[in-house]
Each structure stands twice: as C-alpha cells, then as structure tokens.
Design goal:
alpha/beta; 7-stranded mixed sheet; 7 strands
Length: about 170
C-alpha cells in the first residue's frame, strides 16, 4: 500500500480545440513531462476544475491513460460532486481502474447545509463504500464547517471497515 509521501502533482486535463473532447494524446504528453521529475504520483481531476467537465467515459479514458503511464507511482483521482452517491460511484470506478486513492472535496453547492455533522456523515459514507483509500480535501472557501470539528479522531488517519474490507480515510 502506498504511504503517500512525496510530491503529487495535479495533471491538467487538455481538451481538443476543435471538438472540445478530451485530448488523450496531449494528456499523455503532459503526464510524461511531469514524470521527468521525481514525483511520488499524479492527481487527476483535482480542484483545477476540469474533472467536472468530463463525462464518465472521458474520466475512464483519462484514468486508464494515466494509469498506464504511472504503473509504479501513485495515481490519485479527484472525486468532486454534489452528492455522496455520485462520489461513491466515482470511488468505485477509480478503484476498478487501479487508482490508489480518491481525493474528495466537500459539496460546494450545499455549503450552507454542510455542518460538521453533515460532512462527517458524507465522508464516512464514502469511506465505507470506497474500495480504495479516501483522502479528504479541505477547501475552506467551499465549506461552512471543518470535518475535524465534528470528529476529533479525523486529525490523524483512521480506518473505516465495511463489508470485510478496510478503507483508510485521511486528512
């Protein structure tokens, strides 16, 4: 299991200028350029925003493309959505594509309702259902409460167990 130490770089997702589709050739080029440095891993669909613009098949194509390029390095997948259910589906897809972890930001649209308790329930539901590790991405302007305020155990790595599997959730 990856210990997630070192430098992880967010890879931007290029689009074809004519069609607006994912540009897999340019993505490969971007990631190869990043890999010329001493990185521990690559993050796809981070909070740079373009992950929200991709459909499910494009996310899968990008994930598969980068996984092929980084077989020995960590692959983190940003999972940003406005519902717990949608993020769980992203976590399962990322796990099926051999990603090492998902990076989960809180739902921004529902900010007024994201109390510490609501965030804790959201993150725990994701961790319980995820086949891979869950990394929490605190985005202060996007959240109304800190998850740490609701659960002091989240100040250090914790383990959530569900259906006989173990998922590690970290801040």
């Amino acid at each position: 299991m990856n210990d997630f130490t070192g430098v992880f770089v967010p890879a931007t997702t290029p689009f074809d200028r004519e069609t607006g589709d994912l540009d897999v050739v340019a993505l490969r080029s971007n990631v190869r350029r990043l890999l010329a440095t001493d990185l521990a891993g690559v993050l796809l669909f981070g909070s740079t925003g373009e992950g929200l613009l991709l459909d499910e098949s494009e996310r899968a194509a990008a994930t598969d493309t980068v996984r092929e390029l980084v077989p020995e390095k960590a692959l983190l997948i940003g999972a940003v959505a406005e519902s717990t259910r949608a993020i769980i589906l992203m976590a399962k897809a990322a796990g099926a594509a051999a990603a090492d972890a998902i990076l989960v930001a809180p739902p921004a649209h529902h900010r007024p309702h994201m109390t510490a308790e609501a965030l804790r329930e959201h993150y725990w539901a994701i961790a319980d259902a995820s086949p891979i590790r869950v990394l929490l991405h605190q985005v202060p302007p996007a959240i109304a409460a800190s998850i740490c305020a609701a659960d002091s155990s989240l100040s250090s790595p914790i383990t959530a167990t569900s259906s006989g599997s173990s998922t590690r959730m970290e801040i």
